[in-house]
Structures are given as structure tokens and as C-alpha cells.
Write a structure and sequence with these properties.
Blueprint: H1 3-18, H2 25-33, H3 41-53, E1 57-62, E2 65-70, E3 77-81, E4 87-90, E5 102-103, E6 107-108, E7 115-118
Parallel strand pairs: 3-7
Antiparallel strand pairs: 1-2, 3-4, 5-6
InterPro entries: FUR, Fur_C, WH-like_DNA-bd_sf, WH_DNA-bd_sf
Family: Belongs to the Fur family.
Keywords: DNA-binding, Iron, Metal-binding, Repressor, Transcription, Transcription regulation, Zinc
């Protein structure tokens, strides 16, 4: 693997690592271009595929869009800002629903996904 390829992979992995939450492909591309101005979108897709195969990142779906975040963050949820469109990672759980909870009629809960919507700190009134 060439030095250039390694560098591209490092920059893209770092963009995802340092993000406030999961990022879409255009956002990853834009942020990585601040370090590598000539980075092409095809390279971004190729690198995301590689990092996914290596389990350094994984894709999630928010509002039907694929967003990428690093793996190993433990239990967390996402907050989607209705004004600026950014998605944030929240390390708080808004539902008290342990794995193994059994609902009436026998539905056994194993996991849950919750996406919260509202205004981020930068967009909230008074910010
Ligand atoms: Zn916002
Ligand atoms: Zn939770």
C-alpha cells in the first residue's frame, strides 16, 4: 500500500474519530479536503469500505441517509438537529429498557435504537 493511500486513510479515519457524531459521505469528504485538498470522492468511498471491513467504523442510517461513525463507542444514541442538520452522538440513554425486558404477550427486548430530534446547542434559542 502506497504512502499516499496510507495518509488518505489516516486523514479520513481521523475525521470520523474527531467528529461530533456520525457523518455522511459529503461531510467526510469536505472535512478531509481541509487536510488533503485534492482528495477525490471515489477515494473516500473506497476508504470507507476498507475501514468498514476492518471494523474501525460502521454505517448507521438516520433519516434514510447512511452515516459513518467509529466502532466501540458503547451504548449511545443520536441527536439530529432540525436546523443545521448535524447529527450528534449522545452518551445518555433516554429510555430505561434493559435487554431482556419482556412486554405483554411475550415480546422479548434485546436492543433498541432511538434518534432524538431538536435543536443542537449552537442552534437552540439563546445560544
Ligand atoms: Zn444545529
Ligand atoms: Zn439506549
Amino acid at each position: 500500500m502506497s504512502l499516499r493511500t496510507t495518509r488518505q486513510r489516516e486523514v479520513i479515519a481521523q475525521v470520523i474519530e474527531e467528529a461530533e457524531g456520525p457523518l455522511g459521505v459529503p461531510e467526510i469528504h469536505g472535512r478531509a479536503q481541509q487536510t488533503l485538498p485534492r482528495l477525490g470522492i471515489a477515494t473516500v468511498y473506497r476508504t470507507l469500505k476498507l475501514l468498514t471491513e476492518q471494523r474501525q467504523i460502521h454505517a448507521i442510517a438516520v433519516d434514510g441517509e447512511s452515516l459513518y461513525e467509529r466502532t466501540g463507542q458503547g451504548h449511545h444514541h443520536h441527536f439530529s438537529c432540525e436546523r443545521c442538520g448535524r447529527v450528534f452522538t449522545l452518551h445518555v440513554c433516554p429510555v430505561d429498557l434493559p435487554s431482556g425486558t419482556v412486554f405483554a404477550e411475550g415480546f422479548v427486548v434485546r436492543s433498541h435504537e432511538v434518534t432524538l430530534y431538536g435543536l443542537c446547542p449552537a442552534c437552540a434559542p439563546g445560544a
